[in-house]
Write a structure and sequence with these properties.
With 191 residues, the protein is mainly alpha-helical. It folds into two domains: 20-62, Single alpha-helices involved in coiled-coils or other helix-helix interfaces, CATH 1.20.5.810; 69-187, AhpD-like, CATH 1.20.1290.10. 66% of the residues lie in helices and 0% in strands. It has ten helices and no strands. The protein has helices spanning 20-33, 38-43, 47-61, 69-82, 86-100, 105-112, 120-135, 141-149, 154-177, 183-187. Helix 4 (69-82) packs across helix 7 (120-135) and helix 7 crosses helix 9. Keywords: Oxidoreductase, Peroxidase. GO terms for molecular function: peroxiredoxin activity. InterPro entries: AhpD-like, AhpD_core, CMD-like, Uncharacterised_peroxidase-rel. It comes from Bradyrhizobium nitroreducens.
Length: 191
C-alpha cells in the first residue's frame, strides 16, 4: 500500500474550514470536472490571495477576444515549460488538449512549440510569450509589428503578455509550494 503524496509543502485547509465563497467555488469546480484541481486546495491556504488569484485568472482566461481559449492555454503550456512548472504544464496541457480537441498538441507545445502542429500565427504568439517570459526587457516595436503582421491587435498583445506574466507568478508559486498535479490531468483529452 502506497501512502498518498502531499499536494503541497504548506498546510492545505479542510474544505469544511474554508470561507463559504471559496468552498462554493471549489465545489462548483468539482461538480464540473469530477475532481478538485489541487491548485484550488493549495491556494485556499491564503484566502485573500486565492480570491485575487482566481479573479485575475478568470479575467485573463475566460474573456472573449481574438485569442481562442486553446491559444490562451498554449501560452500557459509553452511558458510554464520554460519555468519548469510541472503542475501548470500537466494541468493546462490537459485543458489545452480538450479545448483544441487534439490529443497531441499539449505535448508538442510543451516540448518544442516551434515544431508543433500549430499555425504560423500561433508560433508568432508563442515566440512573443517566450520573449516576455524570459526577456521582457527586450520587447520592442519590432515584436509588436511581427504580431500585427499575423493579425494580432494591441489588445491581443496585452493579453499574451498578461497571460504570460500571470502564469510566471503561478509557476513560481506552484514550484515553491511543491504543488502536485492531480492524477486525473494526465489522461484528460487524450482520446
Amino acid at each position: 500500500m502506497t501512502q498518498a503524496l502531499a499536494i503541497s509543502r504548506f498546510p492545505v485547509p479542510d474544505l469544511a474550514d474554508m470561507p463559504e465563497d471559496i468552498r462554493s467555488r471549489i465545489l462548483a469546480v468539482q461538480e464540473k470536472s469530477g475532481f478538485i484541481p489541487n491548485v484550488f486546495l493549495v491556494l485556499a491556504h491564503r484566502p485573500d490571495e486565492f480570491r485575487a488569484f482566481f479573479a485575475y485568472h478568470d479575467a485573463l482566461m475566460d474573456k472573449p477576444g481574438n485569442l481562442t481559449k486553446a491559444e490562451r492555454e498554449m501560452i500557459v503550456v509553452a511558458t510554464s515549460n520554460l519555468n519548469q512548472c510541472q503542475y501548470c504544464v500537466i494541468a493546462h496541457g490537459a485543458i489545452l488538449r480538450i479545448r483544441a480537441k487534439d490529443p497531441l498538441i499539449a505535448d508538442q507545445v510543451a516540448v518544442n512549440y516551434r515544431k508543433a502542429d500549430i499555425t504560423d500565427r500561433q508560433k508568432a504568439m508563442l515566440d512573443f510569450a517566450v520573449r516576455v517570459s524570459t526577456e521582457a526587457y527586450k520587447v520592442s516595436e519590432s515584436d509588436f509589428a511581427t504580431l500585427k503582421s499575423h493579425g494580432f491587435t494591441e489588445e491581443d498583445v496585452w493579453d499574451i503578455a498578461a497571460i504570460t506574466a500571470f502564469f510566471g507568478l503561478s509557476n513560481r508559486l506552484a514550484n515553491v509550494t511543491s504543488m502536485r498535479p492531480n492524477a486525473e490531468f494526465y489522461s484528460m483529452g487524450r482520446g
